[in-house]
Amino acid sequence: MKTVAILGTFDTKGKELIFVKDLIEKQGVNTLCIHTGVFDPIITPDVTNAELAAAVGVDINSIIEKKDRATATLVLSKGTATVIPELYSQGRFDGIISIGGSGGTSLATPAMQALPIGVPKVMVSTMTSGDISPYVGTSDIIMMPSIVDAEGLNEISMKIFSNAVNAIVGMVKNAQEFKEEGKPLIAATMFGVTTPCIKTAKEYLEKHGYEVLVFHATGAGGKSMEALIEAGYIKGVLDLTTTEWCDEIVGGVLSAGPHRLEAAAKVGIPQVVSVGALDMVNFGPIDSVPAQFKERNLYQHNPTVTLMRTTAEELQEIGTVIAEKLNLAQGNTSLMLPLKGVSAIDIEGEAFYDPHANEVLFNTLRNKVGDTVEVFELENAINDDEFAIAAANKLMELLKA
């Protein structure tokens, strides 16, 4: 019989969690109750808070004595993130659910993030109306708005909890096993303005027996790709769209953080990297562009996305950082430069065409990448078929080597 883990504070949210537990068991699914609260739960859980604290070397009684909510949340969050993956690896549960406010969400989601992709995860939270990226990270957690505070049972909360239970039970009961075809997985990065390049390269690689996972370079996409690389899923990387570095350095809205472009070097897999969409920084609607950028070369991609052309000075800084990241790899790395344009709107006659700015980028990379990085320069724009196929061929060469 399938089992759903119920993760939560069975001291302060005990009544609500028991309601969830009863609904799950009525559908013929077992439950595993894990207590993340500080004080005594209203039922006897299957995994206690003392066990969670002990997993990170802390005595639960010392937390209780301190009466420090922040310390308690931190310790129990770390303990939960340690214990939950162990329980899953032991086959103790098949899916996981939790409910909570800001504290409960902060306690539960790090543990959910630590579970493999594909394990059903549902978090009913008051925090879902805001920025949920700290809670979801690069995982596949389903965040469900609680609508009302997750405090007490009422007509609204019971309906929401019931829907959440139906979701987790449905996923657990109807889980499908997909047989791997044995094709090596390739990660590729794409943006709207580099789509033709990646489509061509993807089709070419798939004809040669590879399976290509495409990640949209919107911050979350880059982070997800790096996480999958580190987890060992990926055999090679076609990282032709490194635009997230523009947002990280200049201050746009689609940054993937300071560790982008590190994972392939860390795990030692082949990577072919390019400078796709380094001509642009991303903002929201045009009214949201910061005041200091209002007089820059702006391009309204659509009503909700405004692009800003990067300057030569910015590209020098971006090129320096990319070179530093590529130099982390001891071999297995190629850098390909499309000398005729780095995006669909950075070619002659288009809005972001700026050969001088691009040449500063190219020269920075030429001068700063080390001897362990092969540099190839092509008299193409990035979306030319010749460039895409050359990049795909280079990656295959590295993979075979």
Q: Number of helical runs?
A: 14
Low-confidence parts: none
Strand order of the largest sheet: 7-6-8-9-13-14
Overall radius of gyration: 24 Å
Helical/strand content category? alpha/beta
Oligomer: single chain
CATH topology annotation of the largest domain: Rossmann fold
What is the name of the CATH class of the largest domain? Answer: Alpha Beta
Apparent shape: elongated
| Beta-strand content estimate | 15-25%
CA(first)-CA(last) distance:
47 Å
Number of strands: 14
What does this structure look like?
With 401 residues, the chain is an alpha/beta fold. The chain folds into two domains: 3-173, Uncharacterised protein family UPF0261, NN domain (Rossmann fold, 3-Layer(aba) Sandwich); 185-400, Rossmann fold, CATH 3.40.50. 41% of the residues lie in helices and 18% in strands. The protein has 14 helices and 14 strands. The strands form three sheets. Strands 7-6-8-9-13-14 form a six-stranded parallel β-sheet, sandwiched between helices. Strands 2-1-3-4-5 form a five-stranded parallel β-sheet, sandwiched between helices. Strands 10-12-11 form a three-stranded antiparallel β-sheet. Helix 5 links the parallel strand 3 and strand 4 (121-125). Helix 8 (195-207) packs across helix 14. The protein starts with a strand and ends with a helix.
